[in-house]
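Module 6 notes. Inverse folding takes a fixed backbone as the condition and produces residue identities as the prediction. Think of it as a translation problem where the source language is geometry and the target language is the twenty amino acids. Below is one complete input and output pair. Work through it position by position during the lab.
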């Protein structure tokens, strides 16, 4: 796992598949997604290496239920005591009550998905002991007020987080990037619904956009998101597994 400082208050945690983000407030930390099964201890150790304690993480916000984003949620929550948050439509899958619906693959996505699956650990994740449900319009107590934005399409309960005071947007897998260029997310339940969600995110006016896969956009994010909505065809690249 790689740990990369993006901003003084923001670190990216990169896993073999997918990535998570750590937001630093003075008194507490917030983790957005957790990475794959078995990485809870690695995340805790990374936080310790940054000079903070895993117990400083007050909340873990899950952008959606896919295992490369929630696989370590139960393990890390047990280590840190952090509260785990997810949208009501994805929370039952995060809690392990039943399996979530599979994506509706486009043909060109199938080989990309097969390669990603080969890199995922085997076995079911440890579900969190409890999941707090959050929904569109909720404001969470970090980053000067983090607005929950419901962005269905990738999954029914996908959420983004927007920090207006910081100009930072966490898109989950609603948006990805390939070779540094933003693109609509892949492996979706409803691509047209996802594109409508991308339009909504573009209208937020974010300066920085952090994706579930691929390099973040560190300036001019709103314009970058708007450009992919205007030309949302099949990308020339593919989202980085990391």
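Target side of the pair, the amino acids:
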């Amino acid at each position: 796992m790689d740990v990369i400082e993006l901003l003084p208050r923001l670190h990216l945690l990169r896993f073999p598949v997918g990535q998570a983000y750590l937001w630093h407030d003075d008194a507490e930390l917030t983790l957005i997604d957790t990475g794959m099964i078995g990485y809870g201890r690695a995340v805790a150790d990374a936080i310790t290496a940054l000079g903070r304690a895993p117990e400083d993480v007050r909340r873990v916000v899950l952008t959606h239920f896919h295992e490369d984003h929630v696989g370590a949620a139960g393990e890390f929550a047990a280590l840190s005591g952090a509260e785990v948050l997810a949208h009501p439509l994805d929370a039952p899958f995060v809690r392990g009550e039943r399996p979530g619906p599979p994506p509706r693959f486009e043909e060109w996505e199938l080989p990309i998905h097969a390669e990603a699956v080969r890199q995922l650990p085997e076995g079911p994740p440890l579900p969190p002991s409890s999941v707090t449900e959050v929904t569109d319009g909720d404001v969470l107590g970090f980053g000067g007020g983090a607005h929950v934005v419901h962005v269905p399409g990738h999954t029914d309960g996908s959420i983004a987080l927007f920090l207006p005071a910081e100009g930072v947007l966490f898109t989950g897998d609603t948006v990805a990037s390939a070779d540094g260029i933003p693109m609509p997310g892949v492996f979706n339940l409803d691509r047209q619904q996802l594109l409508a969600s991308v339009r909504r995110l573009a209208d937020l006016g974010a300066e920085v956009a952090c994706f579930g896969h691929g390099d973040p956009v560190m300036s001019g994010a709103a314009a970058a998101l708007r450009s992919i909505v205007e030309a949302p065809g099949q990308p020339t690249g593919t989202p980085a597994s990391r």
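Reference fact for the lab report: Residues 191-202 form the longest helix (12 residues).
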